Amino acid sequence: MKRHFKATNTPTPYDDPSTSSRIHIQSDSHELPNDQIEMNLPELPSDPGLRPHIMTYHPNIRERVIRKYLLKGPCQPRNIEFPKTYKGGQLRRFSPTWYNGNANWLEYSENKDAVFCLCCYLFKADLGDQGGGDAFITEGYSNWKKKERLAYHVGRDSNSIHNRAWEKCQALLDQKQQIEPMFNRLAFRGHDESEFSSNQGNFLELLSFLADQNEVARAVILGNAPENLKLIAPSIQKDIVNACSIETTNAIIRELGDELFAILVDESRDISCREQMTVVLRYVDSRGYMMERVIGIKHVKSTTALSLKESIDDLFSTYGLSIDRLRGQGYDGASNMQGEFNGLKALILRENQTRKCPYMAGLFDSVTMVVNIFGGSPKRRDFLLDKQYEKVVEALSNNEIESGQGLNQERTLVRASDTRWGSHYGTLMSLVNMFPSVIDVLGFIVEESTDKNREASNLLLILQSFSFVFNLYLMTLILGITNDLSQALQRKDQDIVNAMRLVKVSLLQETRDEGWAHLLEEVTYFCSKYEIEIPSMTNVYVPYGRPRRRNEQVTVEHHYKVERFNSVIDRQMQDCFFGVACLNPSDCFVAFDKKKLVRLAELYPNDFSFLELSALPNQLENYIRDVRSSEDFSNLKGIGDLAQKLVATKRHITFSLVYKLVTLSLILPVATASVERAFSAMKMVKNRLRNRMGDQWLNDSLVVFIERDIFSDISNDAIIDRFQKMKNRRGVLF
């Protein structure tokens, strides 16, 4: 095909023929295939000290790289500790005030502790030392004693190198000055979007519907649009959604402003078995409402702590978020997100570590193995259902269970969801109800010559032990008690005070004090019914596989009651922060305690200075006297209502320190339900029929889909402007 066309070189707006011979960059004379020059543009380094020379990028993607940097804007970190160096015999450092008046081009590199010029990096040719030479492009300028060099770099007239580069930046983003050259290329896609396709996809089908219903639209779209400007190609569809996603995320960042925030992070595999990490921001907006917003779904190459940290750092850098404003973290899932590894630094706080109980971990591992061994084979699953049917018929004939409408329906082992931690309760309950059938089928598998007989044999030993049955009943009891709490925590507006109230009424403490005898009775009855050996409670407890002489001499009863029963319940209760309950406005602020609130403020030394801590007791006195005497605060139900009312009555300004305590308490993550809902949405967007979605396409689709209330408020003009500036278009949208 190439022999029928003559190759041409299309000049770009940043190519200067008079200087092109002076650029000493080696390039390959052979044309590279597109799949070898494509790159992940969102991964371009933000730090100017880490960027490669702009001319090292392949010509086919160089303009996309330039446009990406221009849309992102200069790298201007502010809330960081700038290092001090000796300059002119004195310790000096960079000041963020240098950005003032130079906001459109000045960049700071944390890597090199130097400043750079964005527009000169993108467009300046190798023209010598005028305007500082390469100091503001490759080497960086770090003489903090001489700020006047910035003005010298810019130059006094419009013909300076810097100003000419800045004009090229503006010209590239001005679509009216750009003319897109024509290319002969065929777009390829696996789905049929041809004119006579019965299902062209939602985008084209909706356009067709619009054309049928609207005469004005029909005159300018699809068949009535110019052949080379229909704007319906797959790449155009992705650009439109990407523009919507960027504007949605920017709106969230604007809503956050300079407020403190927490992050909720979790990871899960999509339908293509690619690890996806979702990051949610939790913050209090300007109206006093607690918000949880998804800002990104990012593919992580591995789930190690270092890889996750790099991904979070990249998101923070992309959206200009500072770790200094981070006040809380919520994690669910893999242990590498719990703060147990070195290298996570300030992002993963030590106090958010989750202590694990080895006995309960072993229980859930065994239950998962049981579910997998039956779920992996339709034959074994059907055999289990047949056995369960026989057990139910036998129990009905012996009057051991009742019959009636809706009772004794066919059931199977329930697999716990990766993203719904409350679903473990259903898994354990199904195992308790189907226990004899599970044992019978595992025994049958052991007798068969299959690849699962050894695994089934090990599971039989584990399941038919007193230790396993005790753990099974203990966790079923605890998860059953806290089931209402689990359901309530799925609400994204849940605050820490309401969560603590639910924990108090969940009867955990009462179970710890009075539930031991009843639990032991149930476990003993279960073991007797299915002929499982019951140890004597007065004997010395010996852990499995360990010699007796090397262990502390405790009785079996002490081990199961103190080290398991009491320990597990205590760990369920001790993770709740009861200190912030003093802010609860219920019953005319009956829980108010000035000393505890001052102590709470002392836990945030970065947010309360010494003078503010000194002034806090008096402000608390004035605050409680005011709100107790005001009708506006008489019927509040939670700390969330309190924050909204403080803002509505302008008292958040009068009692600014108290309001800061309220917001700090609100942003404490209670649960990761919003992240779990994002993964539920991911299963709908990226399904078996769309399992080849790229990571950026998935992120853009999910952000718009999940945060549609934010997206609905974004103007069409903002999206059109973003779409227009992404790349050169053959036409200008109005």
Describe the fold and architecture.
- Residues 7-21 have a biased composition (Polar residues).
- The chain has 31 helices and 8 strands.
- By secondary structure, it is of the alpha+beta class.
- Strand 5 and strand 6 form a beta hairpin.
- The radius of gyration is 32 Å and the shape is globular.
- Residues 1-39, 179-190, 333-358 and 574-578 have low confidence and may be disordered.
Care to give the gist of this entry?
Helices cover 46% and strands 7% of the residues. It is an alpha+beta fold and 734 residues long.
- Low-pLDDT runs of 5+ residues are 1-39, 179-190, 333-358, 574-578
Structural class: alpha+beta
Q: How helix-rich are the residues, as a percent range?
A: 40-55%
Average residue pLDDT: 73
Find the count of extended strands (DSSP E, 2+ residues). 8
Number of helices: 31
List keywords for this structure.
734 residues, 31 helices, disordered N terminus, 8 strands, alpha+beta, two-stranded antiparallel sheet, globular, four-stranded mixed sheet
Topology of this protein?
Elements: H1 34-37, H2 59-72, E1 85-87, E2 90-92, E3 106-109, E4 114-117, H3 118-123, H4 135-139, H5 148-154, H6 161-173, H7 202-213, H8 215-218, H9 234-256, E5 261-269, E6 275-284, E7 290-299, H10 305-318, E8 326-332, H11 358-375, H12 378-397, H13 424-433, H14 435-447, H15 453-463, H16 466-481, H17 483-488, H18 496-504, H19 508-514, H20 516-529, H21 556-573, H22 586-589, H23 594-602, H24 610-628, H25 639-648, H26 651-654, H27 656-666, H28 673-685, H29 695-706, H30 708-711, H31 716-726
Parallel strand pairs: 5-8
Antiparallel strand pairs: 1-2, 3-4, 5-6, 6-7
Helix pairs in contact: 9-29, 9-31, 11-15, 12-14, 13-16, 14-15, 16-20, 16-21, 19-21, 23-24, 25-27, 28-29
Region (Disordered): 1-21
Protein name: TTF-type domain-containing protein
Biased composition (Polar residues): 7-21
